[in-house]
Amino acid sequence: MSHVLETSFAGRTLKVECGKTGMLSDCAMFVSYGDTVIMVNVNASKEPREGIDFFPLSVEYEERLYSVGKIPGGFIKREGRPSEKSILSARAIDRPLRPLFPKGYRNDVQIVCTVMSVEQDNLPEFIAMNAASLALCASSIPFTSPVATVSIGLIDGEYIVFPNAEQREQSIMQLTVCATKERVMMIEAGGEEIDEETMINAIKFGFDQCQLLIKFQEEIVEKCGKEKPEPKLHSVDKTIEAEVREFAFEMTKEVMYIIDKEERALKMKSLREKIDEEFGEKYADNRSDIADTLYKMQKDIVRNMMLNERRRPDGRAFDEVRNLESEVSLLPRTHGSGLFTRGLTQVMTVATLGALGDAQTLDGLGAESHKRYMHHYNFPSYSVGETRPMRGPGRREIGHGALAERALEPLIPSEEEFPYAIRMVSEVLSSNGSTSQASVCASTLALLDAGVPIKRPAAGIAMGLITSEDLSKEAVMTDIQGLEDFFGDMDFKVAGTEKGITSIQVDTKIAGLSEYIIKEAIHGAKKARLQILDVIKECIPTHREELSKYAPRMHSIQVHPDKIRTIIGPGGKTIKGIIAETGVSIDTNDDGKVVVMSNDAENAEKALAMIKELLREVEVGEIYLGKVTKITNFGAFVEVLPGKEGLVHISKLDHKRVAKVEDVVTVGDEILVKVTEIDAQGRVNLSRKDAIENSEKDNKEEK
């Protein structure tokens, strides 16, 4: 049975159609907001997947270029691998939903959000996030907590819900809030140095707006929701759990209280061997239950240590940052490099400057077509002391790179101030807690080392959380390390400058965060951020005054926009010729700006001279040495400047009468000519006779 339900939200119509399409999916819906339309389909396997110890949820965000009236570029005219934007959107849908599934649920669940139509005022990713929650709640899958998502902008001190395209351009903040009825599930934010109180109030405003969408979701589920059968949940065999706990609990506790990470890892390996020796043969068919019990013991011990004993695994205070080190100019031939170390977390970022033509071209659903500032992040296996195949970047690497990019983007100088494309590459050398935020710090060092005049240095830190089962006790930790992240409840990453916040990303493993925790985390992050910024400034107080000698130099001139076509030439022939002869790179803008980039100052000057020569205007009365390009029976055409020709009429070729043009000149001859006239149609009339007279007169005067 088909249902259509509508509501008005932020001045636009939100419409949901269920039961009309996707008849074989567990739940399929069309969700539209304005002219943006998302088709969502959710399905689950009939039985749990055997032999796994995790919840197999997959989220796909399928961009279709027909949604914005585009045909894909390139040779293959169909969508290829997911864009970075698509991957980031899928991650954003996954993160607030995953913690709300029942513990022990091991059925495969797939959420597919397909972008069918896009109106730039209404971004599809936010509609998809709401659509995914709605479809799960209405399906037979055991998901019962509606999650709403809103985007918030900030213009002239006023919070805007779902800002349109024009408002997004004006907004100094881009905030995404996902929430249930009770708590905030996820936060993502980017901003132009937003102060802490403004950000906290924006999150609270976003939470309140989410409640309106949750109410609408509940109305739809009541109309077309399916019955939810009792799911099969994995649980550890109680007998095995009791025996393993009795045998190994105290030994596990002793190991988990070891402060040194490497020593603790060695002792844990030895303990696993003891447990396997004791129970491996007895419970050969239930080895996963043994492993699950050991994991639960570790988790219980660490959480009790922090929550009740107020002690962290490495002995730090709850608001203490690990040892910090900063270094720049590590690599002699790169344009800029920075090494940042926080405890056992270490990231090196390398900055590369290029021509504006090196900017990334985006073939996606958004209005933006190019990206001048790019940040890439690599997380090799050696960073955690492991071995695995080296493949391309996964979703995590793409997400972490985007997070670091968002943190620094508001600080990058404009194209007018610094006309370079900038690529940052963060290499994780050692990982034990929040490498994405270490990437922000290392990238700040690299940008300053490269001579990029950023507004202010930025730094990032990750905050953690431990809660009791009934949520009556909560403890926030500064600068979480790997163990605290693994057994903790929250990863709250905040980056910014001494002036304010530039990015936030928050994930939880529990059913959301209270207002108190959000405030504590944001204020605690500021204290740590200022401490890190002091270390960065001590290493390199400001950007280098001079670029690296290996960085390309920029030379620019402003010309009339109509002259750009002259510089480019037919089919790009002219500009390609200049590049081939001088070895420079040249970028031209529609506004008439021409940028020449080269490591060789002499070649750059030569290219600029060639461009200026192209742009020289023919002036009446001036004498030029020109080349004969064409002969007719009435005269000769002569190129006096590159691409600029005029006619020497046969009567103007010589003092005496000329019977045939060929008697005086041939194609390829270089002759002196004087410009006698430029008519109303722009045609240039030349005279060899007058040029000769002028030359003879000058010679007499010299004598």
TrEMBL record:
GO biological process, one term: mRNA catabolic process
EC assignment: 2.7.7.8
Cofactor(s) recorded in Swiss-Prot or TrEMBL: Mg(2+)
SUPFAM superfamilies: Eukaryotic type KH-domain (KH-domain type I) (SSF54791), Nucleic acid-binding proteins (SSF50249), Polynucleotide phosphorylase/guanosine pentaphosphate synthase (PNPase/GPSI), domain 3 (SSF46915), Ribonuclease PH domain 2-like (SSF55666), Ribosomal protein S5 domain 2-like (SSF54211)
One Pfam match: KH_1
Catalytic activity: RNA(n+1) + phosphate = RNA(n) + a ribonucleoside 5'-diphosphate
InterPro entries xref list: ExoRNase_PH_dom1, ExoRNase_PH_dom2, ExoRNase_PH_dom2_sf, KH_dom, KH_dom_type_1, KH_dom_type_1_sf, NA-bd_OB-fold, PNPase
Keywords: Cytoplasm, Magnesium, Metal-binding, Nucleotidyltransferase, RNA-binding, Transferase
Residues covered by the S1 motif domain: 621-689
A GO MF label: RNA binding
Name of the protein this chain belongs to: Polyribonucleotide nucleotidyltransferase
Originating species: Oceanirhabdus seepicola
Name of the gene encoding the protein in the UniProt record: pnp
SMART domains from the UniProt entry: KH, S1
Locations listed in the record: Cytoplasm
Positions with a binding annotation for Mg(2+): 485, 491
Primary location: cytoplasm
Role of this protein: Involved in mRNA degradation. Catalyzes the phosphorolysis of single-stranded polyribonucleotides processively in the 3'- to 5'-direction.
One cellular-component annotation, GO: cytosol
Family: Belongs to the polyribonucleotide nucleotidyltransferase family.
